[in-house]
Design a protein that fits this description.
Blueprint (H helix, E strand, L loop, with lengths): L3 E5 L4 E4 L2 E4 L5 E5 L6 E3 L12 H13 L5 H16 L5 H15 L3 H9 L2 H29 L15 H5 L53 H5 L1
Antiparallel strand pairs: 1-4, 2-3, 2-5
Length: about 230
């Protein structure tokens, strides 16, 4: 890639054909004259543990070529497939332009330009994934609220809950509300029937003593002696 210019900050590290170099104490401009040299700024490198999005996965493939950890022949089919998949998601004009630039650079073997064009999609991807996460969280909250509201009585507002009927627990048969049906009070346990009181003996006629009470007439037997006489 003849003509590639790197603007390096003090102490910045970069890699050329797998060799790690470090800049001095001053800002530096380095022009790469060798054609097809693989150059990678270490500040642009993606750590394997940080590959958690589609764009980062495609960028990492291009990075492996620049770090001389894989060959261009092995990486090219993966990059073409990854760029095609990204073009189905990033359909805005600016993203299309970056994907077209990455495809053109890949056809020319300029993998540094491939990585640079793909890295331009990282900020847009982060915004899209943040928006999708917010939409998912809002949908989950709405579903949770609907599930909680469905457990409450339909004739009461969602923010109110039925108050316990204290009287219903203290008095059997008390109304649970103005429209509630009255429940009959439970019948008390049956008690043994009381024995009937003895009838009082009628008092004798007023003004009479005990001798005045008439007794049953006694049958008289015939006098056998009188009969025989």
């Amino acid at each position: 890639m003849p003509g590639l210019i790197l603007k390096l900050t003090p102490g910045e590290r970069f890699m050329i054909n797998g060799v790690v170099l470090e800049n001095g104490d001053h800002r530096t401009r380095v022009r790469i004259l060798t054609e097809n040299a693989h150059v990678l700024r270490l500040r642009d490198a993606i750590h394997p543990d940080g590959i958690d999005t589609p764009v980062k996965r495609v960028c990492y493939v291009a990075q492996l070529v620049l770090a001389c950890e894989t060959t261009a022949e092995a990486a090219q089919p993966q990059l073409l497939r990854g760029i095609e998949q990204l073009s189905q998601v990033f359909t805005d004009p600016d993203s299309r332009a970056k994907l077209d630039a990455a495809t053109a650079a890949l056809g020319e073997g300029r993998y540094y330009q491939v990585l640079k064009a793909l890295r331009g999609l990282l900020a847009r991807e982060a915004r899209l994934m943040g928006y999708a996460a917010a939409q998912t969280d809002a949908a989950l909250r709405a579903n949770a609220g609907a599930a909680v509201g469905s457990d409450r009585p339909q004739n009461l507002p969602a923010e109110e809950s039925p108050a316990p009927n204290i009287m219903a627990g203290a008095m059997p048969g008390a109304d649970a509300g103005p429209n509630a049906a009255r429940k009959p009070a439970p019948e008390p346990a049956s008690k043994p029937a009381a024995e009937p009181a003895s009838k009082p003996t009628p008092d004798p006629a007023p003004g009479l003593g005990d001798s005045a009470v008439a007794s049953e007439p006694r049958q008289t037997r015939p006098n056998r002696r009188a009969a025989t006489a």
